Amino acid sequence: MSGTGVTSRGAESVSLPTDLPVRLYMRALRQYQKLIDLKRFTQEKVAAGKDEDRWRGKNEGALFKRWKRATSSVETRSPAVPAPTVPTSQPSDLLKFLAINALELSAPASDALLKSRSSEWFQLSGHPGSLAPAGPGTVWKRRAAGDHPAHNPERDAYEALAACPHMRSAIPRYYRELEYGGENFIELQDLLHGFRDPHVMDVKMGTRTFLEDEVSNARARPDLYEKMVRLDPNAPTEAEHAARAVTKLRYMQFREQCSSSAEQGFRIEAVKLPGQPPLTDLQKVREPKKLTATVARFLGNDESVRLAISTRLREIKNMFEKSDFFRKHEIVGSSIFIIYDDERVGAWLIDFGKTRRVPDDITITHREPWQQGNHEEGFLYGLDRLINTIETAKLSEATTEPDVSR
Description:
Layout: E1 6-8, H1 22-48, E2 65-66, H2 91-101, H3 111-116, E3 131-135, E4 138-142, H4 153-162, E5 174-180, E6 183-189, E7 199-205, H5 222-231, H6 238-243, H7 248-258, H8 261-264, E8 266-272, H9 288-299, H10 303-322, H11 324-327, E9 329-332, E10 335-340, E11 344-350, E12 354-357, H12 379-392
Antiparallel strand pairs: 1-5, 2-11, 3-4, 4-6, 5-6, 7-8, 7-10, 9-12, 10-11
């Protein structure tokens, strides 16, 4: 669709009515394309059968585990807002209808849409502005600024994993790559959609969260020394203090050691509890006792939640270990996103912007210590310890705010 500002794979062309302003044509076309895409995705979902059903029962290896809390309170639900009636005649009539409604809908999301979803959507962590709700059930994720125009590692990873029978249920559903306003995005399943005021935790995985080529330059840098001193004046060695400079590798490893990444293979990036703002200053929670206390508070003194999350993470680990994709790729800087409310729990692998294929002569275990050139990132090492932390947390002790001091 030239001139619309939005392009996507497999876009259909339609004839524009001539009695509406051009700006509304463009918005109408975007909405029309979304309906086309929705129809296509729905058809694919039906054709896939029960294997792709997103709402299977607990005993069927479900993406969501269902249960009812014994002490859940009755919530007051606001009355549903009826959806406007959509014309069922020709595409031009539909475009006119969508153009009128496009005054309150834009891409990726208007203020009206954000306000209507403010109780269920938020960006928990990551670069501010990298995610935006695109509509009910989907989000747009902006392409990383440093990526080469012809190379999109995150898109490639999602497309490969979506085609992998072992991994497709462990990631958000991937829809498409698109361009809007001169920028590139991928459209993904909105993992928060359908949950009501949930508990949410973002856990960054691995003992190494930087790429090897990011630290290949051995030149000592004064700016990194200054950053290190601001974080911890006692961190530099005597030689580094004398030179007033450190290498990128030294600085990045120092950053990993400030959190639990280096020792535990995971760090808690952020936590959101019902009715409270997100806690986003948890990266310095690194001691095992503090990690366990933070996890226990997230679990909310509920054994059924603990069991459901533990089971799901073990499923993800088993899928990971069976996947050919992970045998051939280092998974750097990815996270596990965990959500639950009074009825459901889900966990997914997210963030593949630093996923890279390893050389053919390299075999990685995702558990061995990293050395320059071996491409180990400690993902499974960290997942083993995350599962153990969840399974051993003493829920009765989860009564206070987590201590984020080192």
